[in-house]
Amino acid sequence: MAGKKKEATLQASVTNQEQWEEILATKGLTVVDVYQQWCGPCRAVVSLLRKIKNELGDDLLHFATAEADSIDVLERYRGKCEPTFLFYGGGELVAVLRGANAPMLQRMIVEELAKEKLVLEQGGERKVVKDNGLTDEENKEEEELPQHLENEESVIVPASKSYTVAIIKPDAVAHGKANEIIMKIQDAGFEILAHEERTLTEAEARDFYQHKAAEACFEDLVQFMSSGPFHILVLSQVEGSAAVVPAWREFIGPADIEEAKRENPESLRAQYGTETLFNAVHGSEDSDQASRELAFFFPNFRTASVMEQDGEEEHVERTLALIRPDVARENREEILDHIHKSGFIIALQKEVMLSEEQVRQFYCQHVEEDYFPALLQTMTSGPVLALALARKGAVSHWKTILGPSDINKAKEESPDCLRAQFAVENKPINQLHGSGSREEAEREISFFFPKQQTVAVIKPDAMEEHREAILEEIRGRGFSVTRLKETVLSREMAEEFYKEHREKPFFNQLVEFMCRGPCMMLVLTKENAVEEWRAMMGPTDPNKAKEASPESLRARFAADILHNSVHGSSNEQHAEEKIRFIFGDISTDAELTSDDPISDDPQTGGSIDPEHSN
């Protein structure tokens, strides 16, 4: 009961116009979570808000939830599926944040509270903003930046250049070496595309280094990186080299200072570092990590833009494509061929049987339209193929290829478009979906490809020689290691862990092998984590792995079908069961429940099957 009382006082509940006016009259900064009645407030940030409130202990900071359906002034927020946080000071809107971005939310709360206190204490002018995200998108020529970024300069990385993220750490800044290091960076031929001085909160440092959460030094690293100001730089090379990431890592030298002094005495770490933790500088490990780090520090960055002949910029981005059930059954491969020939990369792919409630949730802005019943019937008539497509200008390019949403109009005006080609007779609904904007695309992709958790095991045969290499590749592929445990399994635990194979002839041999020595159990988190990890492992039989997926972990590290280095869950339900068995309950943020996707777990066989999880 005490916990519920604390949560109730943390966020005031606003459900009518009178309460709304009262909350805006509150002195100080009020952060309002605007929500729809059908989905409720954003529960994912409640613990963060409580932490911020406890840490700041400021009576001028207030939190509230507001139900858009019952408050007239919030009418334009109705039907919006994305979490929205409105910041009010003195009854005026001073900032807006969309999405449950915890580090950004924390940063904005601290910054806006400081601004509001200055207004109250010194009588300064309060900067009032408009929520540009609510303007008529159909009449917008360009997509607006989020409100809290509209006065920040965009970081634009040209298509001809690769980039990496560099950090001059707090130890080097504290010793007055930042400018000296920057001069050496420029002298070495690196081009500085962006440069800012920042200070991380402990929460931000923990989020930035989450890929190192499993390492022994993680807590020390978090404390160090939040201990003082540092310099963040986005680097390319003057000559536009495609290898800027390895070039920068070579220039800074090994993370271990003694190794750096021995192997690369001219490197930055050898010259300015004092020990492994206080090693002066940071560099992205690979291009994927560089992209994530750039997005973390510069959320308004724009990657790899090229100027089209008509003068408009086209950006590398993702869009959601849906192939609806009727054509997914008959024309799937033909449509996929069109997608590949149009220059798209299929970044994520999933076949899903949607429930009526999920269709209503996904198409929440269309439920009152006359065509919605037909759309609902179509979307629930069979499996839908969902694709996250990536290329420059993906959203607009996919919309162009699709053609008009009205089938008759598509046939008349653009007979070669996909919607005209794959129209189904006597069906008024077009058979392909595309996102309407970049913002909408990311929201829709998150709906079909939410963050997923899967179990990974580094088996006893790989622990001694390949553990570090496997962990490094896991981090490099964008997985977050949210739980980790090194253990020697008892026979009882191994039998329970592999219980689905109990009746198979190899069961005893498998159990004995897994009890032979220490193994490492991990919970990995990523979009489409189950399939991504299975693809990374490769087939169970290393001989087949070498033929079908030579870069997979099993192709490179496995000795035979039993000693095959790694294990992964075969589907999301299996992953949830194993996570509970190993670690107890771990909450996930998946939007599609475990029984929503069509299971891709094949029928069990009588031998060790590469499609199973051993």
Automatic annotation (TrEMBL):
Keywords: Cell cycle, Cytoplasm, Metal-binding, Nucleus. This is Nucleoside diphosphate kinase B. Residues 129-149, 590-614 are annotated as: Disordered. One of its GO terms (molecular function) is nucleoside diphosphate kinase activity. It comes from Haplochromis burtoni (Burton's mouthbrooder). The keyword Acyltransferase does not apply. The active site is at H282 (pros-phosphohistidine intermediate), H433 (pros-phosphohistidine intermediate), H567 (pros-phosphohistidine intermediate). Major role in the synthesis of nucleoside triphosphates other than ATP.
